[in-house]
User: What shape does this take?
Amino acid sequence: MDSAHEPLADEQTEAALLADLRAGSDAAYETLVRETSGRLLAVARRIVGTDEEARDVLQEAYLSAFKALDRFEANARLSTWLHRIVVNKALMRLRTRKRKPEEPIEPLLPAFKEDGHQAREAVAWSDGADVMLERAETRAFVRSQIDRLPDTYRTVLLLRDIEELNTPEAATMLGITENAVKIRLHRARQALRGLLNERFGAAPADHTGPGGR
Amino acid sequence: MTCRECSEFILRYLDGELAPEEQASFARHMSLCPPCERYLSQYEVTVKAGKTACKDAGSYLPGDVPEELVRAILQSRKA
Assistant: This one.
């Protein structure tokens, strides 16, 4: 489980912390920020991409959270609630960036021949996944390839696969339909698989004969 | 079912959302088409790779957050 989703403390401790926060205790606010800001800074950094912007996002998110604390419903976990606020603020930050045209995702998707067969058959990857991912260098490579995805797709991949929001939550945050979330998630995973294939698959020659079935 | 159709079924297959007849024809295609079987397996590895790779991304632990940022956040409440 992603550390961003780890509860802040057991429920009893969290309830006590919440009561202290609502009472305006400086110490409680300090505990909250010190306990949660590390994980949340990493979340913001993954979405916006730079430390500087991630720090701004974090500050905005806490300020919003502090103001909304009275409206926090205790049936959610404080850590989950904060996580959602950070994700939302990070997405807002992306939206305010100067829009530059996105690279098309199509070149990264699998190609098919007119008859529906794979145009380039998937070839076996060199190592087992577990072996590959044991290497820090491989994990860094995977992250760098996620960053290459067009934002429209990268954000959905991050929200669903990494931040572990469900489809309706991701749809609400992004202001798109659940079906659009599913389509973009599938395309994002396919594109990422294509990017990883460039390293892990032996260079595939164009397959001109009959493909699969 | 063609390879193209099969590839469009992967997400719903992994989410357990295929209807029984779709599930059957997906499984039949997979059992007969090694390239699609490899593709499915690589798709699953890709999802896992993303999750694993991002777990240590940034890896800010509570003590790694710059002190001035913590201070600024706490100050903003009183501004």
Observations:
- DSSP finds nine helices and no strands in chain A.
- Chain A touches chain B through 60 residues (CB under 8 Å).
- The mean pLDDT of chain A is 87.
